[in-house]
Amino acid sequence: xxxxxxxxxxxxxxxxxxxxxxxxxxxxxxxxxxxxxxxxxxxxxxxxxxxxxxxxxxxxxxxxxxxxxxxxxxxxxxxxxxxxxxxxxxxxxxxxxxxxxxxxxxxxxxxxxxxxxxxxxxxxxxxxxxxxxxxxxxxxxxxxxxxxxxxxxxxxxxxxxxxxxxxxxxxxxxxxxxxxxxxxxxxxxxxxxxxxxxxxxxxxxxxxxxxxxxxxxxxxxxx
Length: 223
Fold this sequence. Notes:
The chain has 223 residues and is α+β, with helices and mostly antiparallel strands. The chain has helices spanning 14-28, 47-57, 59-68, 73-91, 93-99, 121-127, 173-181, 190-195; strands at residues 32-33, 101-103, 106-108, 132-139, 147-154, 157-164, 198-202, 207-210, 221-222.
């Protein structure tokens, strides 16, 4: 295929390519680097980031929810995560991020959109409290040691994954695409098939994307 976007010199190694992308996201994109040990593969979530966001933005709502769950904070967390997973599986990641989740009559927002103008300081402040994280070499399943090069999260909910390749390592974007079609062909996996909105296959010259993994039938488009 013809190049769709030039990202960086072709002589960069895959490891350096990964580091450079993370450094850019952290220094210029408003991200922090996530901890792969915080990810719970059975849930397809990073609960630490999720509840840090909720505590920082919705203290009153969370306190009300804890009371309605009997006053036990740990039990409330477990029950809320169960409700969140159900909504994510039924409604999808985008809708949950946009509209939040209602549990026991209490609405918990999962993200805040940028306000139309900067006139409302309160809304702008909430938008600024979204927790964007990029996690390297994320182990996405408890069944094997496979890992994703990069995973992007919004408030603990994974929204994108990326597999990176470099000619220096003898591979290019076509190998990343093949990896998604074969090694990442796991229909039951929460992150790959029910959480992430988009998957990127990337080398220093090209980027392709797909919104749905379906084994050999997966269709990647130039990004």
